[in-house]
Amino acid sequence: MNRRNFLKSLAVAWAAGSQVSELGAADSAATKTGLKLPQRPLGRTGVEVSALALGGVIGMQLPPSPAHDPVAIADTALDLGITYFDTSPDYNAGQSETNYGQVLARRRKEVFLATKTNDRTYDGTLRSVEQSLKRLRTDRLDLLQIHAVSADEDLVAWGKPGGVLAGLHKLRDQKVTRFIGLTGHDSAGKLRQAIEMFEFDTLLTTLNPVSRRQPFREELLPAANRKEMGVIAMKVMGGGNGCLAAGNPLQKVLRSYHDQTAHQVNAPLLLRYTLGLPVSVAVVGVASGEQLKANIAAVRATKPMTLTERHKLELLLA
């Protein structure tokens, strides 16, 4: 598939799922008509995934309690059409993977499963994945990603015999994972350098309207599209507990992780923005089943933004 056809297929997949325009009407309309969550091609992999993924942070990294049931959230996500589960051993010391494992033990065939490794060595990567598989209660992954690429990353070391890429390639050869990718929100330039130096199937990175993310939108995203990678968007709502979304608390934490600005907007607007870009899937974490259902309703219902609408939102959140 060439780049033009790949981008066209993303647009067609979105349009097929965009049949109503108001969030308030979306859930009832979907219930009555059986409207499905839109599916999109994951780059050149030949796989299609739901346009919305369940993120492994927020509610999915918390341990089960009488007041919180992460297993129920994941089951509900599958029941309502989400096929992509995102997690990492880094999320609450493996608790996110453990929570997902409760569902995967019963419903593995329904899930496109993505996890990560923080290690940069061959041996460390193999150990990390072995532990992840145990927590996830499965013997295979769909996507394994180098996690949290930083601005000072030694990319040359990745490609050495004892480096992380040798571990990823071995796991792919052994069919422990189908695809390999990388993630990051620290440096658009370093991520672009990495995808131009090495071959990856996917890129998970930050794509929202905030001005500090402009290099990710305008430099990194086109580079990934040219290589027909599956682009997975994160920090759609500003990261953390969604500090860009109206009604969510602002975050008194490192700015490098959160993208809060002086303004907040409705969550469906942020989903519209990101899914209007040439991406395959948006990863969004939720604190409850109610938030999950609202996000699913928004993705079912809304149409991608016009260029003018996108620019207005970028200016508001500059």
List keywords for this structure.
318 residues; alpha/beta; TIM Barrel; 8-stranded parallel β-barrel; two-stranded antiparallel sheet
Description:
By secondary structure, the chain is α/β, with parallel strands linked by helices. The chain has one domain (3-316): Alpha-Beta Barrel (TIM Barrel). Helix content is 42%, strand content 14%. The protein contains 12 helices and 10 strands. Helix 8 runs parallel beside helix 9 and helix 10 packs across helix 11. The chain is globular and about 50 Å long.
Report strand order across the widest sheet. Answer: 3-4-5-6-7-8-9-10
* Principal-axis shape: globular
CATH architecture: Alpha-Beta Barrel
Output the number of helix runs: 12
Average of per-residue pLDDT values: 90
